[in-house]
Each structure stands twice: as C-alpha cells, then as structure tokens.
Amino acid sequence: MPKITEIFFDCDNTLVLSEELAFEACADLANEILEAWNISDRYTGDQLIKDFVGQNFRGMMGSLQKKYNFEIPADKLEGYVTKEEDKVIAKLEAKAQPCVGASEELEKLFAEKKYGLAVVSSSALRRVRASIKKVNQDKYFDEDKVFSAATSLPKPTSKPDPAIYLHALEKVGKTATETVAVEDSKSGALSAVRAGIPVIAYVGSYHGEETQKAMAQALTELGAKTVMYHWSEFPDRMADIENGDVTEVHSSL
C-alpha cells in the first residue's frame, strides 16, 4: 500500500463547530425563500441540519427545489447564496469554536511535518477561511491548500459530488491512495469515498452517545475505514489505515 503523505480535513463540525451556527443563520433565509414561493412549510436550524447536513447552501437549495417542486431563477439564486454567506460568516466570526481536541492534533501534525495538510470543504471559501481563522487554525494550512466545492471549482458543486476531492488531489499532486480524509457527514464521507480516498469518520460533534453510534454505523456503511469519537484518537485511527487494520470500528464509548 502506498505511504500516506497528505491529510484532507473537512471543516464544518470536523475542525470547527460551525454547523449549528450556520444552519441557525440559514433557516431564516430558507424560510424567506419558501414564503416567496408560497410554500407553507418552515424550517428550524435543527431541521435543516437533519435534512441537509454536509451540503452547502447551493446544494441545499437544489434539494429544496426538488422537494417542493419549484425553481429559483439563476440570478436570484446567486443573490441568495451571497446573502447566506454574509449571514453565516457574521455568526461564525462572533461565536465559532474549534471541535474539541482538533487544534491540539493539528498543532502536533504541523510540528511533525510528516504529512501535508489541507482543508476540503463544501462551504464557500470565504466562510471556510473565516471559520479556521476565528479558531486560530488558519496557521496550519497554506493559503493555497484550502479548497471549497462552492468556490474553487469552475462549476460550483457540493459534496457528495467527489469533484472537490479530485480537484484537491490534482492541486496537491497526490493520488487518492497517498491521502486520508477526515469527514463527519454522510455527504462528505461519500464524496471522499467516491474519489477513492480512505476516510476516517469523525462523530465527536454529534450530540449524545446513541446519535454518535448511529452515525458511526452509517458512515462505515458508506465506506469509511475507521471511526474516531474524539480527536485524541486521531494518531490511532491514522495507524489503523496505515497498517491496514480497518476490519473493525473502534469505539471509545
């Protein structure tokens, strides 16, 4: 097996506890859009997370249009995308916190210099940069190694489309088998798996033991190689993949 030389990290709820803040900001705008098209359903941030976690706003709007059978004109959609970005970034800059233990592991990895480090996210580049800067993780990533499915590609997309991972591989000059991805969502894990990249599933940001166990199972079924419940387990989970010891899901619960 080729040696692992690069680690790709998802951002939202993998490095930075941003999903709840983002979906809170996003629910108001989603409801405004539903109201504009005379659709009576309304969302809370929690409901949006349940239905659309791992998707960026553009992907979410695609899913909403499909679900309720309506169409937002392209120019109007772009306006909504910018508005959502601004709302979310304002919340993140005010309140974002790192995922528990993530910064400590990044610090060790950065000092060790054994692996290249990159962020591969569905979210807009401006939002990803604001998130990692707010929690002081930006120092661990070169500016040209932060990738966004919403911004970095010629045609914007969202995970589970593997396009952003394939793009990141090309930019860092690695093959999928030289790389590991750390992902917390179904769409994120599926994106990396479809790109051929081994996945460490991180479930520590989910609330409650049962939810974490359910997500661990779901992500494993989608193809994640091993599961991490806390960032302190990261060296062991990397060892699982590097040693080919991925026949069982490790649990610290």
From TrEMBL:
Could you tell me which SUPFAM superfamilies the record lists for this protein? HAD-like
**Transmembrane region(s):** none
- Give the molecular function GO annotations: phosphatase activity
Q: What is this protein called?
A: HAD superfamily hydrolase
